[in-house]
Amino acid sequence: MINPALIPLLRAAKDVVVLTGAGVSAESGVPTFRDAMSGLWAQFKPEELATPEAFMRNPKLVWEWYAWRRKLVSDVQPNPGHHALVELERRVPRFTLITQNVDSLHQRAGSKNVIELHGNIRRVKCSAENKVVENWQETKDLPPRCPNCNDGLLRPDVVWFGEMLPRRELEEAYDRCKDAQLIFSIGTSSLVHPAASLPSYGKNYGAKIVEINPTETPLSRDADFLIQGLSGKVLPELVKMIWNI
Ligand code: NAD
Fold it and tell me: Which of 18, 66, 151, 174 has the fewest C-beta atoms under 10 angstroms from its C-beta?
């Protein structure tokens, strides 16, 4: 149920930030990290594969898991939640989408001003030089070696648990939250910091927080508007209520 008091606020807002997490892609068929994994990967915990230690211990396993996830995200489509955020961007004078997702579904839906806090699964980088590698080839031994230094193993260009976020993106995210009038936190468990602290940081500078999630999170008590529901349903409904589209 959407609180009608949100409607005039959003209609008048000149500066809106949206922070998204894995839940936004769930209705496209991308499992969140905390969903149980199925099939081949059911025996592993994602939190134990998405770490530098896991890669050091078993690079082939981690590479193959990401190859499976890369294929999975390229086979699915953006859902009505992603599309509603594109409509929002078209209508709000200053709009920033900060995402923890690495799946490109926002960009594929048409979102333009996207800050990727946790990297992108389509890119790979050299684990020795920490530089993105554009041209690389699959090899019999996995992961492939970096074609530039012929030494480091290639790895996905995503932020693993325990790693630093890209500095420029994080600074920009803080700046945008400082200026925002409304900050939406959508489909994120608000457990992974520093992303989870962005909405409350913005609230200290005067923003109102709107949370959209079927379940409560640590952010819920700070939220000015709490919408319990699926983003693929709630977001199109919200856009329809405001702009009748
Ligand atoms: P999370 O798995 O911790 O939490 C997902 C949240 O989404 C939960 O709070 C859940 O209640 C909510 N949710 C589930 N279905 C929803 C729906 N249809 N609509 C709205 N909310 C829904 O994910 P997180 O908070 O993003 O953090 C975990 C980390 O996992 C992130 O760093 C991210 O990089 C990574 N991750 C990314 C992807 C992706 O790119 N799609 C997928 C899995 C994990």
Answer: 151
